[in-house]
Amino acid sequence: MKKMLFTAIALVAFAGTSIVNAKEDLIRTKPCMQVYMETYDECADLGMDAADCTSEANAAYGECLSGN
């Protein structure tokens, strides 16, 4: 019984930590999603096709996440 209780407590603690980490990741990446969207829109305004715009936007998103 003690083993099952300890396992349940550990599971709840781990799940709570995972939720906090996911929320921090979302907060950190939200501005980068804006960079992605703006890059894509600018690319489309220049008349580039969707594949090229996606590639450019992905590159800008990656640079934003890495802090460059």
TrEMBL record:
Source organism of the structure: Flavobacterium terrae
Record protein name field: Cysteine rich repeat-containing protein
Signal peptide, first to last residue: 1-22
Lineage, highest ranks first: Bacteria, Pseudomonadati, Bacteroidota, Flavobacteriia, Flavobacteriales
Assigned keywords, A-Z: Signal
